[in-house]
């Protein structure tokens, strides 16, 4: 197994100020959150049922899928985002963003806090989530932001062979043992309606 998540990642819980969405509001209605205000007007913390793709450089919108990282938080497996073309699967998950918590639809997984150099992760039955994600407008569409940052995601190949998987990493670290930082390519994570 690979050590994808550091100990600090597993216990780190981010605190951000979140505005509640009024009960009974339409899924298309979203509230702004303070932690995302610096990302511009139109930034929201609630959207329902979308896919995530990665684009930037030579990547023109690769579907992202969930893959078991081989790490655990408590007794829950941690899942991370990888490109579909490096993890062949017929299933491309949809996600929802609710009060700044990113969740894979149809699961009981919630997002975990993410530190620089780490892979954004999800775990089952692990509290209410990190409240650290939002959707920021870019060119008439939304991109995913974490910790108030929409520009620090990358796709990086894992340090494995013969067929390395390509993972989403937040602010890649040149010395991280789980991925080869020389293969990292900056991307934005696009929110795609389904």
SSE layout and pairing:
Elements: H1 7-11, E1 47-56, E2 59-73, E3 76-83, E4 95-98, E5 101-104, E6 109-111, E7 121-124, E8 133-138, E9 141-146, E10 153-157, E11 166-170, E12 185-193
Antiparallel strand pairs: 1-2, 1-4, 1-12, 2-3, 3-7, 4-5, 6-7, 8-9, 9-12, 10-11, 10-12
State the main characteristics.
194 residues; twelve-stranded antiparallel sheet; 1 helix; globular; signal
Mind explaining what this structure looks like?
This protein is mainly β. Helices cover 3% and strands 41% of the residues. Strands 1, 2, 3, 4, 5, 6, 7, 8, 9, 10, 11 and 12 form a 12-stranded antiparallel β-sheet that branches. The longest helix has 5 residues, at 7-11. It is globular.
């Amino acid at each position: 197994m690979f050590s994808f998540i550091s100990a600090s990642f597993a216990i780190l819980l981010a605190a951000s100020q979140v505005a509640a969405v009024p009960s009974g509001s339409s899924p298309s209605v979203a509230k702004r959150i303070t932690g995302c205000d610096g990302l511009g007007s139109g930034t929201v913390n609630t959207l329902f049922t979308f896919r995530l793709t990665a684009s930037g450089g030579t990547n023109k919108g690769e579907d992202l899928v969930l893959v078991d990282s081989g790490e655990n938080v408590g007794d829950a497996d941690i899942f991370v985002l990888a490109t579909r073309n490096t993890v062949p699967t017929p299933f491309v998950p949809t996600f929802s963003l609710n009060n700044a918590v990113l969740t894979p639809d149809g699961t009981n997984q919630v997002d975990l806090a993410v530190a620089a150099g780490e892979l954004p992760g999800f775990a089952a039955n692990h509290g209410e989530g990190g409240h650290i994600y939002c959707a920021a407008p870019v060119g008439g569409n939304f991109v995913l932001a974490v910790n108030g940052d929409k520009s620090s995601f990358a796709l990086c190949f894992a340090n494995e062979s013969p067929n390395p998987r390509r993972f989403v990493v937040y602010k890649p670290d040149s010395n991280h043992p789980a991925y080869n930082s020389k293969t990292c390519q900056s991307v934005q994570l696009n929110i795609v309606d389904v």
